Amino acid sequence: MRHHGIREFEHIKKSKAISYDPRFTKPVERVSNRLKKVIKMPGAEWEFVIFKDNSPNAFALPGGKVGVNTGLFHIIGTGKDSDALLAAVLGHEISHATANHAEQRMYRGVGLAVLGSLLWCSLDNNSVDQPAYAVAAFGLASYLVDSLPFSRKQEYESDRIGAIYMAKAGYDPHISIELWRRLRSYHMRRGGQKPEFLRTHPHDDSRIIALQRYMPIAMRYYTKK
Asked: Which of 93, 103, 178, 196 is catalytic?
């Protein structure tokens, strides 16, 4: 997975415009230097790149490759808490890589595909009318009942791990709650969010509540620097 992440990151760098604006590179450098000291990723070849993209997103790939969109800075701003907000984002995204979430989803998807194939063979061999419809129904049900909830579970896990990462790096993990409040406002300005059971990510309100409950644990790792 590490080598795949490195190759994929090289492809992304060739396909997207990169920003070297110090308004973005400097805070990413400050925050990443602190996070790298507390995040254990064996064999990581750390690289943080800012992409010219107005969507407020970031991502991390196996191997220590991290991308940050310029649009994220419209959410975190440049105020006194901006570095901590950025640490919340980066900690969350990097935790997806350290927790092997992509690999887990891949194996789970393969398992469901195998079950679908077995179902197809069983129905076809038993001369069931329209087996394709039954397999399609199985695919939709597994997506709604298994794949999406599993993805949301991973998001909650990354929220928790990310809060610990930022706390270990000396950022108050309470700021992660403020991050999701800001993202909630951003999403509301754009029409809100579709029902949670149809989403790969939990609703912002759900994440805020979960993080609030988790704060006593995250604060155990926090020492102001």
From this structure: 93
